[in-house]
Amino acid sequence: xxxxxxxxxxxxxxxxxxxxxxxxxxxxxxxxxxxxxxxxxxxxxxxxxxxxxxxxxxxxxxxxxxxxxxxxxxxxxxxxxxxxxxxxxxxxxxxxxxxxxxxxxxxxxxxxxxxxxx
Length: 118
Description:
The protein is mostly beta strands and 118 residues long.
């Protein structure tokens, strides 16, 4: 059974930093990407950053230059270092695992709240 456990969220003031961590267990398949998405009430979930097993990174425009994604393939963990946080970064952040095989389901964490106050 695949489980994704997120940690590191919380509240911070504008300009502050937070580091999110996600640990995936029960992985018995090859992973294509691990990454982070976020969602605010009334809006669709949006990509923040993803990283392939080969080391390629992709960031949303809002995350570029402020957030850094890192991954430990051996441990099936993915972190998101968030700097220069803004109030508009306030959201529930979700970790996602995308298997290499397209017909496999994606897996999501339970979500973790990040609140940035002005």
